[in-house]
Amino acid sequence: MSQWSQVQQLEIKFLEQVDQFYDDNFPMEIRHLLAQWIEGQDWEAAANNEAMAMILLQNLIIQVDEQLDRVSQEKNLLLIHNLKRIRKLLQGKYHGNPMHIAVIISNCLREERRILAAASMPVQGPLEKSLQNSMVSERQRNVEHKVSAIKNSAQMTDQDVKYLEDLQEEFDFRYKTIQSLEQNDKNSALIKQEMLVLQAMLNTLDYKRKEVLSKIGRVIHEIDMLMSNMLTEELLDWKRRQQIACIGGPLHGGLDQLQNCFTLLAESLFQVRRQLEKLDELLTRLTYDGDPIPVQRPQLLEKVNLLLYNLFRNSFVVERQPCMPTHPQRPMVLKTLIQFTVKLRLLIKLPELNYQIRVKATIDKNVSTVSNRRFVLCGTHVKAMNMDESANGSLSVEFRHLQPKEMKTSAGSKGNEGPHMVTEELHSISFETQVCLYGLTINLETSSLPVVMISNVSQLPNAWASIIWYNLSTNDPQNLSFFNNPPAAALSQLLEVLSWQFSSYVGRGLNSEQLNMLAEKLTGPQVSYNDYQLSWAKFCKEHLPGKSFTFWVWLEAILDLIKKHILPLWIDGYVMGFVSKEKERILLKDKTPGTFLLRFSESNLGGITFTWVDQLENGDVTFHSVEPYNKGRLSALPFADILRDYKVIMADNVPENPLKYLYPDIPKDKAFGKHYSCQPNEVSKPSDGGVKGYVPSVFIPVSKILNDSIEPHSPSDLLPMSPSVYAVLREHLSPTAIETAVS
């Protein structure tokens, strides 16, 4: 079943998450129509290879053309229209930057896998539950409702101002008419009557002026209260969701809704500002004793300007945090002299601002950081915000060619810090601009979340651990001295984040049993981790008991192993992976002989092994574990083929495959058959021919189990025999001779 078919079968709450990340950048129609083809391409590799990305883009357009031909024959007018629009978008938007579409599609596919993994989990973790709090959703609806009500109130006040203007014009006309009469005429009874009418009109004007100012004051107060409370909370919640999404959590949405709220409030404030300007104009034409306009208008205008300043300052956000295109799952880790991208948005979307706001990027603007290292940004670091580059028309700017470069400092200050010192240093990318609009000049500034600078990719795992710990532990966006005294983290939340590393990076998260094993590895046995607080040192700096590596280095090596060598098996759920030796024996002891399971090595970095259960002649149960396979050996032979072709030489000297059933009782070929190479590996005979007299050989994993032991004395007892040696032995020696040779 294709990944897209699995997505379509999800519950509605998960489908809503999928809907959030499909837009005009990568329309869902294309994802649906070309599901099999899209999933068959390596978009992640293309995201880092421009030539490959251009070929995939051209092929994508060809696929769209084929679909267009098909629907044209079916005369599906709506689909024809959409496909033509999408084809034009693909050609126009990505022809000059094909890697951008590769990044987008790669991210969408990865996010689909994360959602599928989350849907398969029996319960949500504490972090995800907090992000999906029903009270938060209710507040979002309340904010949108209040913003709409404020907009309506401002528009209604416009009508009141217009009525006031008309009333004053009528008063002016009548007043000037009386003023133009001769003195004798002014004493007539008719004129006296007209003066009474004018006085009544002036009283009405005074009342309406006070009423309009009161309504304007109420609108300003409602905006002030909304900005101070619910809107500020909404923005902070969005920023927190962004933090969590950056470390593998659920995709954060809601920025378009916030943009709508910010824009409507800005429009309302500018509308109120125009109303106050109109009142000032009316004041110059008519004033009187007790006139409320000269008393109240300056205060109201000052409040409006202050609200606009605050609204604009809060609206300048980092929409997408700094990230190297080569490592899309590791944002905020930047390597010197390697390009990274970052995107900013102004949530106040006004046409007057298009291409009028130039944003400047700097690094470590406040040089009072805790680091002794200093950096500058190379590349295009000043760009104009516009509404043309974003699919949804938002006012944004994306920096795509920035490179951090380390500055030379005084002798001895560079390169003397240990690996943990470098990866615990936090830096900040700052952005500044100026908005000039309707007589207002507003300076805006924002910053990325803290980033870690590395000079070698070997530092990336520990740098990513720092990013995880920071964003899990705090919602402070700029605590650059965080690692001077890093706080402990709740183990329950950390385990949830670790599961996200697997779901976002390798497409399948961890279940409760696997997480329990990780918890035990971090805390020791028989510890309730619900309220357990884990230290940063325990997670990333202290070696595991009896090992030469830390917990995080061990886990990162497993992620790398899965990604590069056993990804299909992991996604299918056939790798139990995180299970201790003690637990695996409990699971296997009552199973049919030949039942095996796959687990990650606890003593070797990036190793995977399998253990099977066997039964001796006396009925006793025995277990055998092969020496772990690492990435070097798995590069030579696919792991599924190893499971298919694996042989052991038992006491009777007859090579046989002991692996029959994947735990609990799945026939091996049923589980792994679709991942085998086309032909099983078979050892060729000399008579089959060869090259220049050599005996043809293939890789066959073979182990020898001593006949005088219930279990191997050490892991080396199950070392695979060289394929070529085994081939020669099998063809030229008797079983007895082979036994003698291997002994």
Structure description:
- It contains 26 helices and 20 strands.
- It has 743 residues and is an alpha+beta fold.
- Among the domains are: 118 residues, Orthogonal Bundle (Transcription Factor, Stat-4), CATH 1.10.532; 174 residues, STAT transcription factor, all-alpha domain (Glutathione S-transferase Yfyf (Class Pi), Chain A, domain 2), CATH 1.20.1050.20; 120 residues, Immunoglobulin-like (Sandwich), CATH 2.60.40.630.
- The strands form six sheets. The chain has a five-stranded mixed β-sheet with strand order 15-14-13-18-19. A four-stranded antiparallel β-sheet has the order 1-3-7-5. A four-stranded antiparallel β-sheet has the order 6-4-8-9.
- It is elongated and about 135 Å long.
- 34% of the residues are buried.
CATH architecture label of the domain at 140-313: Up-down Bundle
- On the 0 to 100 scale, the average pLDDT is 83
User: Major sheet: order of its strands?
Assistant: 15-14-13-18-19
- How many E-type strands? 20
Short description:
The chain is an alpha+beta fold and 743 residues long. It contains 26 helices and 20 strands.
Keywords:
26 helices; activator; 20 strands; alpha+beta; five-stranded mixed sheet; four-stranded antiparallel sheet; methylation; Transcription Factor, Stat-4; 743 residues; Immunoglobulin-like; Glutathione S-transferase Yfyf (Class Pi), Chain A, domain 2; transcription
